[in-house]
Amino acid sequence: MIEIKNLCKSFGDKVVLKDISTVFDSGKTNLIIGQSGSGKTVLMKNLVGLLTPTSGEVLYDGRDFVTMSKKEKVMMRREMGMIFQSAALFDSLPVLENVMFPLDMFSNMNYRERVRRAQECLDRVNLVDAEKKFPDEISGGMQKRVAIARAIALNPKYLFCDEPNSGLDPKTSLVIDDLLHGITEEFDITTIINTHDMNSVMGIGENIIFIYQGEKEWQGQSADIMGSTNKKLTDFIFASDLLKKMKESEMKEMKEKKKG
């Protein structure tokens, strides 16, 4: 479980996060949603230690990450997996070696054990046959699945995902959502996802935190969203849906023009 208490973050005179307190549940997919500039990315960076809060606590099973020593933070990060928006694979390494990278860096396994563990993770995301390919030889969706395999290689207790469906088509996005949700349940991981994808929110959002102008405006489950009377939340949800439909309409018109 991850708990944040009275978290604030400022950059000079600009206050970005204002007194946020919440709990991210273990074994659940916890989603952070909000408009661009709302502070959700800054919140995640504070959670993983890329930024230091101006004030407040970030508790990992009761341990305050903010006040840990440098050595303790390094040990703590070994319990974390991270999936970046761009997948962030190493172009010069084949898929298998990309997944092995955190094992090479942080594990005490011998080479044969590291290979076996990486293959197990690739099997979990249905990519064993791609282990010898390079990132530029596989699709964007497959790259995201490699990133998931790499993120779980060290058996993390906590999994952080920054816009994992960015740039993916709706069908592939569902595959990624199902994988993340399944892995979360299977390994009892505390998973936190930053997302704009409303299909993800409605499909796998077991604990959803809506950030508005740096403050926690609403928290609940996907089943609670449609019945919410919070105007800021409903405006965000329906605006997001409208923008998505507009984008799909534009793409359809472009395809029709090309055919013509």
Automatic annotation (TrEMBL):
Q: Does the keyword Ribosomal protein apply?
A: no
Would the keyword Disulfide bond turn up in this protein's UniProt record?
A: no
Extract the InterPro entries matched here.
AAA+_ATPase (IPR003593), ABC_transporter-like_ATP-bd (IPR003439), ABC_transporter-like_CS (IPR017871), P-loop_NTPase (IPR027417)
Tell me which residues make up the ABC transporter domain: 2-238
Molecular function, one GO term: ATP hydrolysis activity
Which keywords accompany this UniProt record? ATP-binding, Nucleotide-binding, Transport
Pfam families, per this entry? ABC_tran (PF00005)
Q: Which domain of life is it from?
A: Bacteria
Q: State the PANTHER family in the record.
A: INTERMEMBRANE PHOSPHOLIPID TRANSPORT SYSTEM ATP-BINDING PROTEIN MLAF, PROTEIN TRIGALACTOSYLDIACYLGLYCEROL 3, CHLOROPLASTIC
Return the protein name: Phosphonate ABC transporter ATP-binding protein
Its taxonomic path starts at: Bacteria, Pseudomonadati, Bacteroidota, Bacteroidia, Bacteroidales
